[in-house]
Amino acid sequence: MFYNQGMENSRIVFIHGSSGDKSQTYKARILRRLFPGMLTPNFDGNIPERMAQLKAILGKETGWTLIGSSLGGLMAALFATQAPGQVRKLVLLSPALTLPEFAGNLPAPIAVPTIVVHGTRDELLPLEAGRTLAEKVFTNLTFLIVDDDHRLHKTTEELDWKSLLE
Predict the structure, then answer these.
(1) Range of the domain at 17
(2) pTM of the full predicted structure?
């Protein structure tokens, strides 16, 4: 099923994590099937290099919906805290908010609607530490705890993406 009615899919960006064939990840494939016009760019390098690549893609345009997974969740969160006026919504999947780029210099709170999805069996990123950080920065936060691991493959298939991205 395609959820492209009423949504400008070209303003949806999926930001992958650090492993695999990055723009072709499992989540990217599922999301592209649901939102055919969404962007799934490939990022590489360290965090500052990746952030420069993301900023070049987003430019000064507004109305972006950013979906970030793991390291991509960190990138989406950093971009939104630096340019909240450009972001319509954030969906962060097991975001790496505990990394020093975010946790070490906690950004000022922002009101961008933010949904965090985090698995109870995530052995890579601690759920409670990430939740505490998210609650300090995102004032319009929905935090979904799911029975899944860090990759969230099962959850990615089961989420009602149309409702999440409205």
Answers:
(1) 9-165
(2) 0.91
Domain count, the chain: 1
| Residue 95 vs residues 45, 60, 115: alpha-carbon distances, Å | 18, 24, 11
Instruction: Give a yes or no: residue 55 inside a domain.
Output: yes
Q: What order do you get walking across the sheet with 114-119 strand by strand?
A: 12-15, 64-69, 87-93, 114-119, 141-146
Distance CA 29, CA 22 (A): 11
DSSP letters for 94-112: S--TTSHHHHTTPPPPB-S
With a cut of 60, say whether residue 1 has pLDDT above it. Answer: no
**Residue 14 CA to chain centroid, in angstroms?**
7
Check residue 20 and report its DSSP letter.
S
Q: Is 131 a domain residue?
A: yes
Tens of pLDDT, residue by residue over 119-134, are 999 999 999 999 999 9
What pLDDT score does 133 carry? Answer: 97
**Cβ atoms within 10 A of the Cβ of 73, count?**
29
Q: What is the pLDDT of residues 81-113, one digit of tens each?
A: 999 999 999 999 999 999 999 999 999 999 999
Give the CATH number of the domain where residue 63 resides: 3.40.50.1820
The phi and psi torsions of 17 (rounded to 5 degrees) equal: -80, -155
